[in-house]
Structures are given as C-alpha cells and as structure tokens.
Amino acid sequence: MPQSNNLVQKSPLNLRKIQNDIDEFKIEISEKKTQSASELNQISNYYYQPKFFAKNSENQEFDQQVEEQYKREVNIFEQHDKGQFELILRTILISLPNVFSFASLWILNFSNLKVAEIFKNEDYISAYAMSFMWGNALGYALITCLNNGLQVMAAQAIGSKQFNLVSVYYQRSQILNFIALIFLTGLLIKTDFIFSFFCTPEVSKYSQEFIDGYIPSLYFYVIFDSTRSIFNSYKIYSVPNYLLLFTYSIHFIWIYLFMKYMDFGMLGLGIGRSVTEFLNMACLLLVLNFFGFFKNIDFMWTKQAFQNLWGYLKFSIPMGSILYLDWIASDLQTIFVAALKDKSQLAGHSAFVSIFLLYVVCSLGLSITIVSFIGQAIGKKDVAQCRKIMQTGILTSFFISGMISFISYLLEDFSADLFTNTPGARQNFLKCYKIFNYITIHGTSLQQIMGALLRSSANQNKAFFVPFTGYFILGSYSINQEQGQNQIEEKTLEEVRQDSLEQKLEADNFFERKDLNQIQMVFKIIWVSFPNVFNFASLWILNFSNVYVTESFKEENYVNAYALSFMWGNALGFAVINCFNNGLSAMSAQAIGSNQYDLVSSYYQRSQALNYLILIFSSVLMLNTNYVFQLFTDKEVADLSQEFMWGYVPSLFFYVIFDSTRNIFNAHKSYTIPNSQLLFTYSLHYLWVWLFMKKFDLQMFGLGLSRTITEAINAILIISILKIGELFKEIKLLWSKQAFKNWWGYIKFSIPMGSVLYLDWVASDLQTIFVSSMNEKEQFAGHSAFVSIFLLYVVMPLGLSITIITFMGQAIGKKDINQCKKITSVGILASLLITILISIISFFLKDIQANFFTSTEAQNKYFQVCYEINNYFILHFQGLAMISGSILRVSGQQNIGFYVPLISYFIIGIPLQYVLVFTLELKLYGAWISYGISVFITAVFFTVKVIYIDWNKALNKVDQIIQKQVKMLQQTENKNNMSLYKRLECENNYENDDLEAKL
C-alpha cells in the first residue's frame, strides 16, 4: 500500500482525487450489496481481465487465443517493443471507428439537406437549419455531453475492476438524460411560438412540424449513445460506430419515403430521424444480447441508479462540457454571420460550415480513443502508461492536423468549386477555408486531445471553465468581417448546374461537326467509348477477384462450384438483366433524340418491373440449384453451389436498379459516372470477398454475399449521384401506373434489341459444356484458362457497341439521315481498327500469356490453340458482329438482330459443334472452329444488312413506333385525368349536398 500511495502522489494526473471518488462509490455500493462475498470474489476473478464475449466455446485454447489477440490489438501502450511512431500509427488505426462515428453525422445532415432541397422551398431549408440547431442545442448535444462523462468515468472504473460502478454510471446517465429531456421537451413542443419572435410564420410552422417528428429520436438516442459509451470505455469501438455509419448512410431512404413519397413534408424529415435512431437503438441492444457482451454489467435499472444523482452529475457534466460548448459556440457564430445580412458572406460561411465536421472528425475520434485508454490506465494507477498515452495523443494530434492541412491545401480550389455556385460565395468560402486550414485546425485538434486528457484526469472543472471563458466571455468566435461588401453578380443555382454537370457529362456529338474527317471521327468515338470499355473490364476484375480468393482455399470443389454457379447465375440473372436493359438504352436514346422524355420514364419503369418479375421466377430455380446440379455433378459441388447462390441472389435485385439507371446515363451519352463507379466498386470487391469468405469463414456463402454487398453499393451510389446532382430531372424514376401497362409493346422491342449479347453469352457457355463433356482434362484446362481472359479481348468492341447505340439512337430520334450514315461507317471502321490492333498486340503477348495462365506443358499447348483461333479469326468477325448488330437493333431491325444469332449459334452452331467435336473427333479444335463459324455467319449477315439498310424507311418505322408509344401514354394519362376529374366532381357534389342538408 505505501508503494501505491507513492505512485499516486507522484502522478502528474492527480490520481489520488480519482481514487477517492472511486472509493466513495465503492463504499456506497458495498452497503447495498445483496450478493455473498464468495460470489463477488468469483466475479472479480472471472473479470480480472475485461472479457467481452460469454464463454460459450468449449475449447479453452481458442478462448485463450482470443484473449491474447485482444491484448495485442488493444493494450498497445503496455507493449514496450513499440516505438513512438508506431504507437501514433496504431492509435490512428484504432481510432478509425470513432472517426466514422462523427463522419456519419455529416452524412446524416447532408442527406437531410439534399432531400429538403428537392422541394425548392426556401422556407423548408430555413426551417430545417433553425430547428436542427435548436434540436441539437436542447437534445442531441446535451445527451452527447452527459454520455461523454459516462465514458470517462466508466473507463476509470473498468481500469480498477469496479464493474458494479460501471452499471451504476450507465443507469444514472440514462435517468438524468431522460429527466432532462422531459423538461426540454416542453420547450421543443413550443418551437413555433419561440421561433415566431424572429422567424416568419411559415418557417415557425415548418420548424414545429420537424420537431414533432424529431422528439422521439432523442429518447431512442439516449439508450443507443449510453450503450455505445460502455462499448467505447471497454475500447470496443468498431461495433457501435460501424452500425451508426451504416444506419446514417441509409437514412436518406427514410426521409425520402416519409418526406417526399408519403408527402409528410417537414414532419416526415423528423420522423425519418426517429426511425434511424430507433434502428440504432434496436440493433445495438440486439448485438449486446445476442453476442453476450458485458455479462458483468447490469443494464436494467436498479434502486442504486436513483441515488446520489448529484454526485454523478457534478463529475459528468464538466467532463462532457467541452463538446457541448464548442457546438453552441459554432451555432452562435452562424447567428452572428447571419446578422450581417450579407447574402454572399452567409452563403460562403454556410458552405464551409457544411463540411466543417469533415475536418475535425479525426481529432474528435482520436479524443474518444484517448479518453478510453487513459481512463483505464488511471483506474489501474499506471503512471508510466498515462504519460505514454499523453505524449502519443499530443503528437498524434499534430500529425493528423498537419496531414489534413496539407491535403486541404491541395483541394482548396476543388472544394470551392464543388460547394459554391457564385463568385461571391466562393470568395467568402475561401476566406473561411484558409483561416481554418492554416490556423484554426491545429488549435482545434490540440484542444480536443488536451480536453480529453484533462477531463479523464480529474481536471474536469478546468475542461469546463476554460472553453466557457474562451468561447463566450472573451468572444474568440466573434465576427470580424466587414459589412457591405460589393455584391457580385451571381448565377442562379439552375444555371450553374446546367453549366457544370449535365453539359460536362454529356459526350460531345462530334458527328454534327463538319471540320472532322472520318479518320478523326474514328479516333474520337474510340476515345468516347473508353468508359464503356471500363464497364466490361470491371466484370473481368470482379471474376478474377472471386477466382483468386476461391483458389486460395486449395479446394478443387470450391473452384468447380464457383465456375458452375457463376455460369448458372449469369444465365438466369445477370445476362437476362443486361438483355432487357440493353434494349432500354437503345429505346431511351431514340426517345431522347425525339424529346419524348415521358416515354423514357415509361421505358425505365417497365424495364425494372419486368426484370423483377422475371427474377422472381428465376430465383426459384437459383434457390434450388443443388437439386438441378445433382443431375450432372457430385453432391458436394452441388451443395457448395447452393451456398453461393443463397448469398448471390439478392445481388441481382440490386443490379436491376444500378443497370437500368446506368442505361439512362448511357442514353444521354453520359458514360463516365456509372462506368467509372463500377470500375471502382468492382476493384474493391476483393475486400468483401476476403472479409466474408476468409476472415468471417462464411466460405461459398460469403463469396455470394460479397457480390450482393458490391451491387448494393453500386445501386445506392448511382441513385445518390442522380439525386444529389439533380441529373435528368425530366425523367421520373419512381414507379407509376405506366410501369405496369403495355408490357408486350415494350417486350417485343426490348428483347430482340438486347438478345444478341444474351445469345452470345449462352453460346459461349454451351461451348464450355461441350469441351467439359469430352473428358479431356488437359484440353478442358487449356480452354478454361483462355476463357478466363476471353472477355479482355472483346471489351473494346463491346464498349464501342454501347456508344454506337446511344449516338445512333439519338440521331434516329432526330431523323438525321446523314448523321446515321456517318455513324454507321465510322462504327464499322473503328471496329476493324480496334480488332486489328488487339490482334497485333496479342501476337506478341502470346507466349507471355500462355506461360502466365497455364501450369503444364499440355495445358499451355491447348491454351495456344484457343488463343490462335480467336486471335486470327473469331476476334475480327465478333467485333464486326457487335457493331453491326448494335446498328440494326437501334434502327428498327431488332428482329434480324434476334433471329440471325439464334439460327447461327444454336440451329447451325450446336449440331456443327457436335459433329466437329465428337463425330470428326476434332475435340477442342472443333469446339472453337464451330464457334468461329457461327460468329462469321452472324457478322456477314449483320454487315450486309447494315450496308443495304434503307434509312428513310428505318427512320419512319422508328418514328411510328415512338409516336404509337407516345399516343398510348397520352391516352393513359387522359384516362387518369378523367377518373381524377370524376372523383373530384363526385366529392364536390357530395360536399354541396351535405351543405344543402345542413342549411
């Protein structure tokens, strides 16, 4: 004991004061204990080291490994082999979940603003800004303040192994939060009355509507945030904070649903927040109970929770006050700027404030980590560790602020262009940006860390009075800018968006230019097609990631199961969706060319509805994959394939949303955004595969689940981009009655238009089945090796064909015959140029690729067989078939685009393949020669038909189709308007009759 007292006296962190506080609570708890001494002793021994999971495992060695891993990951300051720089990096890494927690707040606020802006109502924006600030000051910030104190005190108690204290702190925090909220709710429900003193009646009314829906969220947030503070005090940051990041990322769904779709207005915006906070609370409590976290803490309220509330309050409020005071000071700063009555200054300030949180999330997240680490170290009376944490925290603060400042310097002009839309706002945005980036950020970062150290070391009163004096008495946040700046002529938001987004996104229609010759146009169209090339190249990256991780298991059945189920899923899902949506791209381009945007909306909705209908039926087959596969493969492979399909099937429903929306971009000749996004997400796909398949050991189910996550991200991103950028506002993305009408009129054009890709895909799969049925392992291995890179040889022609469809579609919609002829000749020349260049490059890379993708001499030999037949024969005609086919499909010749490949690939191709492979015993040679003949027949028929196409007749035919669709659309709208008129007339008559009866 004397030695312990010595340590306390020498501590620069005032450990004696903390120990006295803990001893007081220990005496209080001991007086009310109902458990026997032996039970308490048993609990103390069991929880000597913090354990998070109930010991359900019978394997003690495994439990020991988990504990050792925990020590390695979390107790970094107890490891003497770590250098200072490594400690800084490890601290930053551990803090990332806390950083995401604060970043998610920005996502939530950004979602609210963007959905509110959809209504084009300035009163909505003003009401949201005022009520959000009001709700934060009286609710959210106050809860965070009290629970920040809870985290500090709980971490100290955990460090000293006083887990009963943690239970009492948790319960008291919730009780005090609820008591405060009950009183503050009285103010919140009178928001309209309070706001009426300084706001217009409309803003006051809308603010009250928002607060009415917002109030329940505060009660849900109390439970979530207090529970999260317990996780944080145990240094388990990832579970609650990643949950928060996920729920806040999907928050826009609820606000769009309630505010826009259900037309609740500002009330819906508040309800959306309540739904999100309820999900946070429910999910975290489920995780807490399901996984058995913190068995040593009593989360249910007891009598002790209602005693000595002042003793808890006098420590917790000063501990958490710095965040609250900083928050309020920032709000007051905005009020001062608004009082200047200078729109350009307020616009610049508001634009910077909207991203301000992004610059401090790192220091805020780091401060939460420091609180937990130093709290536990103080509880253990470990002076050396306290000093190490203090030193590392301060150095990390400077390191983070320096890095952010440097990156911000590079992004200065980009940020100004992105977040402002007028010269005046940009100028004032840059003033705020530079002052913060070069001066304020370093002080803010250091303040967060030093404040965390002070309030964790029993100096909470200093952490309260210093910022109170600095922010409010000294007025360090006063406004120094001059009023009455010269107003700069500003463009409207609509003009800026038109200049900076849609015009920049749309590819230049160089076919209308007369200063370009044909060769220049060939290179132009190849260049424009590169984003579409990335689209198909990204598919190869995705498949390569799947195969690479699957092969790392060294299980042949895994590889076979993936190959079969991937082919099966493509045939029943992915390829079907592409078929429908390829037709959507062609028909939408025609409608856009003729300025029939309502027709584009109808096509978009019908495409999604039909895709979902087909997927419902095909999902039945995919979810019974094991029964189908057992007919021709062994049971283990069939069962593994079924596991993959369980995770894979939901991805198809997400892909419908992404691909149909992408085709709307393509129809507008805006190729860059969706295809670059796809390349990015498919490049990241490897992370999800590795995480779910290997790290979480979900194996084949994890492989399918990773595809679902990737496609869900694609769908969310592309819809978010569409909404945030307000692109293609003339197109209605939400389903209407039109989505369920005249399906046959859509199907008979869309299926033939998109069929050539599907038929080619299925023909390639049938070729693989023929080769596998030869029972020649070396030949099949060589064939499979080449098929794995086959897509790389056709990505350029495929990407070019998508470009041709949209350019030609718009030209046909405009009835521009000269442009149609020009696109045809340029497309064919570009196809020949591309395939010749690919063939030459492939000739020089043959040996390199053969050696890289094969492992035996025989496999190498058969790989080169496939390689040479494709490179010298198939490649050129396949490119020609793709370009000619795309021209035919979009010019009203879609039936030829359907029947020719059907005959060549299946009616001629399958019997020919059987004869060459089995009857003449050419085997692998026969399979590829027969496939090449089918491609040759298709290319010749398509090219001849394109050369002799009657463009006057073709354009009139397409115009008749469009006018017929428009007429049907108008008839439906007239019927809807008539039925609405009759309903209103009936209601009016009823009201008149009712009025007469009353009179």
UniProtKB/TrEMBL annotation:
GO cellular component, one term: membrane
A family per Pfam: MatE
Membrane spanning residue stretches: 87-108, 128-154, 175-198, 239-258, 278-297, 309-329, 349-374, 394-411, 521-541, 561-580, 609-632, 644-665, 677-693, 699-722, 743-763, 783-805, 826-845, 872-891, 898-916, 928-948
Keyword Oxidoreductase: no
Source domain of life: Eukaryota
GO molecular function: antiporter activity; xenobiotic transmembrane transporter activity
Keywords: Membrane, Transmembrane, Transmembrane helix
InterPro entries assigned to the protein according to its UniProt record, in alphabetical order: MATE_fam
PANTHER family reported in the protein's UniProt record: MULTIDRUG RESISTANCE PROTEIN
Family: Belongs to the multi antimicrobial extrusion (MATE) (TC 2.A.66.1) family.
Name of this protein: Multi antimicrobial extrusion protein
Protein source organism: Pseudocohnilembus persalinus (Ciliate)
